[in-house]
Design a protein that fits this description.
Peroxisomal Thiolase, Chain A, domain 1, alpha/beta, transferase, 3-oxoacyl-[acyl-carrier-protein] synthase 2, 2 domains, fatty acid biosynthesis, ten-stranded mixed β-sheet, 14 strands, PKS_Beta-ketoAc_synthase_dom, Thiolase-like, 32% helix, 417 residues
């Protein structure tokens, strides 16, 4: 069976450094940090008092008051980014077959705001159950995808993947395969997360997973730096419009790039830690390269998972060296989480957009705050420290890894008809 080609024809983003995909990518190239003191709640008693929040977001700019009451913040983010991506793709929803247009999203925590508020209100009451009738539909992790399909009349495949920080990358992989197999013409895919509340910050604090650099939030996310002390929690959404190439060509769509290869696997090693030698990460990158019918030395750039945590930032460069051998030293590597923070289930989606942008524009976004490379990491690798670098980027890989040992790599390449 000959597989269909899959291309990217639209993008949408709502991130801590930009409320649309163009603003987001411009600030990536500028090296802008999205970290700031938490405004969502009083964090003065928390070990971590900062995060990468979305700025200047008013839900009433996008939804009416009745809708806002029905939608958790993560669903709002997903819908806003999906609206942008669909508009960017210039899809005419009255002319395409809506039964072959679907939504596949990735979400890690889902409606954690709704869950926390509902349980808190109950605990503070007299024991009488007085839950909001929208409590369940606002909270569940699949609802954002359902809402997007309802909003745009998309009747094709519709489901949500949950694999911790790999969730939206897994969603993109699934979307690619549905189109490749001829099961759909168009898929709205990506992911969203809204974890910045007392439970999200408190939970990660208890794990000692997030930075406590309260005196200088903007320099707190520092992947591969010897002084890193954990990731910075972020929020937002990223959405891609993936399309069968022949379908896109027939309607004269602009094409940002091609999704040429995908890989997914598992470390089968530890609940929260990566394999120390990067075995799973190495294998998943090679799976994506093999799936694309390419050779490792054809890859130009890797947007790494690079969370700014102790173990992960050691294992991933090891994996790159194992996968690419001597070619590893010719690669550009960067972690855009140094700017956006870690969007958890939404991370793979916004990092896919960063990778597509690099391929389309021949520029690699930087790893900011990289002042002193950890001595355990090979200093001959090019982590694109602190400033973007212009270079030919014909092929980029986006890596995403998650608690539970989930790994995903997506290979994007320049589109050629």
């Amino acid at each position: 069976m000959e597989l269909k080609r899959v291309v990217v024809t639209g993008m949408g983003a709502l991130t801590p450094i930009g409320n649309n995909w163009k603003e987001y990518t411009e600030n990536l190239i500028k090296g802008v940090s999205g970290a700031q003191k938490i405004t969502r709640f009083d964090a003065s008693k928390f070990k971590t008092q900062f995060a990468c929040e979305i700025k200047n977001y008013d839900p009433l700019d996008y939804f009416d008051k009745k809708e806002v009451r029905k939608y958790d913040r993560y669903s709002q983010y997903a819908m806003v980014a999906a609206d942008e991506a669909i508009a960017d793709s210039q899809l005419d929803l009255e002319k395409i077959n809506l039964k072959r247009a679907g939504v596949i999203l990735g979400v890690g925590l889902g409606g954690i705001d709704t869950f926390m508020d509902g349980v808190s209100n109950f605990a503070q009451g007299d024991g009488t159950p007085k839950f909001n009738p929208f409590f369940i539909p606002k909270m569940i992790g699949n609802i954002a995808g359902g809402l997007i399909s309802i909003r745009h009349g998309l009747k094709g495949p519709n489901f949500t993947t949950t694999s911790a920080c790999t969730s939206s990358a897994n969603a993109i992989v699934d979307a690619v395969n549905y189109i490749r197999l001829g099961k759909a013409d168009v898929i709205v895919t990506g992911g969203a997360e809204a974890p910045i509340n007392e439970t999200g910050v408190g939970g990660f604090n208890s794990m000692k997973a997030i930075s406590t650099r309260n005196d200088d939030p903007k320099s707190a996310s520092r992947p591969f730096d010897v002084d890193r002390d954990g990731f910075v929690i972020g929020e937002g959404a990223g959405i891609l419009i993936l399309e069968d190439y022949e379908h896109a060509k027939a309607r004269g769509a602009k094409i940002y790039g091609e999704v040429a290869g995908v890989g997914i696997n598992a470390d089968a090693y530890h609940m929260t830690a990566p394999h120390p030698d990067g075995e799973g990460a190495k294998d998943v990158m090679l799976l994506a390269v093999e799936d694309a019918g390419m050779k490792p030395e054809e890859v130009d750039y890797i947007n790494v998972h690079g969370t700014s945590t102790g173990l992960g930032d050691i294992a991933e460069p090891r994996a790159i060296k194992l996968a690419f051998g001597e070619h590893a030293y010719d690669l550009n590597i960067s972690s855009t989480k140094s700017m956006t923070g870690h969007l958890l289930g939404g991370a793979g989606a916004i990092e896919a957009i960063a990778s597509i942008y690099a391929v389309a524009n021949d520029i690699v976004p930087p790893t900011i705050n990289l002042d002193n490379l950890d001595p355990e990491i090979d200093d001959k690798l090019n982590f694109t420290p602190n400033e973007a670098q212009k270079r030919t980027v014909d092929v980029a890989i986006s890596n995403t890894f998650g608690f539970g040992g989930h790994n995903a790599s997506i290979l994007f390449k320049k589109f050629k008809a």
